Amino acid sequence: TSFDEHYNDAFAQVWQRGADCILSMGADMPALTVDDVVRGFEALHELDANDAGGIVLAPDQEMGVSIIGWTKSTAFDHNGVFYNPTGLTVLPAYIAKARDARIDAIYLPPVPDVDTMADLMHNVTLVEALGYCAVCGRGMAPMHTMAKLEDLGIDEVRIMPNALMDPREAIDALDA
User: Global pTM?
Assistant: First the structure.
């Protein structure tokens, strides 16, 4: 009847299949990297050493989470998190639940998702940067995403030039 119930059921099915931890992430994150996923699982395995387990989470750009997970020994669920029934957005709702239950949490670097056209354009620039960094030997390029964006004709973002400049003379005059 709710997204919370749906998410709890998905986790329950994975636990029943024998998983010792779950790292759940959205499918709308073009700039998600292999390093993000590895870091998430490493954090979960670090928490697995605690009897009470713990949660890991990575925020998105709008007060939600793009990655959430916890170990099997963690007494935790998604109840009351989504669609801000108490006025909290998703990220602070998870933190409040963890705080109230005295459960350890590990914060992962933010991973933006795509909910709006502005989010998509931001992610296009991130994917371009990831591709270039991979050419420089730093990380892996999201090749399939890059190819799809190119096929769609949105592999580059340009905006109107900004003619509002702060001339050096005007700034230096303030120091005088």
Answer: 0.84
